[in-house]
Amino acid sequence: MGKTFAEKVLAKKSGQAEVVPGQIVIVEPDHLLTHDNTAAIIGKIGDELKEFGVARPDMPVIVLDHVIPAASEKTAINHLKTREYAKTHNLKHFYDVGQGICHQVVVEKGLARPGEILVGSDSHTCSYGAVGAFSTGVDRTEAAALILRGKTWLRVPDTIKMTFTGELKPGVTAKDLVLHIIGDIGADGAGYQAVEFHGNTSSLDIENRFTIANMGVEMGAKIAVFEVDALTRDYLTSIGVNESEYKAVWADPDAKYIRELTYDLTKIEPVVAAPHKVDNVKPVSELEGLEINQFLLGTCTNGRLGDLEAAADILDGKHVAEGSRLLVLPASKEVFEAALDKGIISRLSKAGAIVLPPGCGPCLGAHQGVLAPGERCLSTANRNFKGRMGCKEAEIYLASPETVAASAITGKLTDPRKVLEGVPQ
After folding, report:
1. I need a labelling partner for 379 at 20 to 30 A (CA). Which of 124, 161, 255, 400 fits?
2. Which residues form the domain of 226?
3. 91 CB contacts (<8 Å, ≥6 apart)?
4. What is the pLDDT of residues 66-100, one digit of tens each?
């Protein structure tokens, strides 16, 4: 019987010939990601750290990104504790404020590689499935134990096979696709299961795959992963990761799946996730004209160069609607500088956008862009839970960069295809 991606990786990493769904395995993750929560995590094991130190100094990856620059003395102290921890234990992979959002930085720095296992004290660690890695979130207590022991346990998940046919039409994006899937199977439709993407994935570039894998957890998935192909290899080479440095893993043709689903990309249309659940997905056409106060373009879901450029193309020669505000949040310093070099930041600024430092702040209501009671935000982020952006009496709608940009022009929810096709607004 053939094996799934998850079964192959977990067997190899646990030193076994094969494993089956439901089995518990002990593995040594290649990397453990933490971010601003590092101070709280090491606070759980202060005495043990002094006595035993870090089990594997090459394993931790720390990226300060959630509240940057520090917005309070408490945050500043936590950042200071994290810097001291990284210095004391000679941690190789420490990235201070300003480098970007952790998930983008991990991939850009070549720390997520095909066939490897990465865990992180952030649920969107699943993002690295875009480059063929087994990546998943763990809680803070498990992260603390990993720092001391260098190993953890995982339960081998069942796997869902999702097959894509056709190609997305103009004005329709990977964000629309993944929201459509979540709306179809539900926020718990892949609970503790692996999701493999098959079929015409070559029509989706690495940035689009990142968006889809990033939101795997929003359908309950343990991991969400794409096969390593020529696009993946070219991307990894472009960031300095040579083919000799990794060994790609993929499912066998006769692997056994708990569920198989097929999605015709030609039938996907622009959608939004309406408050207060990510699976409350509706066509943009159904809610078109809804007034929006704030627009957010960016985050670890849609803050990459292609996302910013797509929005700039729509906003060129136009301006953010009076009474509305557009926040732009590049996913990393590298993305920000590339957008500067290409003139994208200038184009967005001239259209009325407010450009923020590369980080997470507004996405979770921790810093900058907090909403007021009764306000609505149309965001390219990954969650729209009540209170997510700092106010329980505000509403958050999730959409693609194109939908956000088109709607920012009108101040109302707008189908991006109308703007792209030149329909008067």
Report:
1. 161
2. 158-242+250-268
3. 54, 57, 60, 62, 85
4. 999 999 999 999 999 999 999 999 999 999 999 99
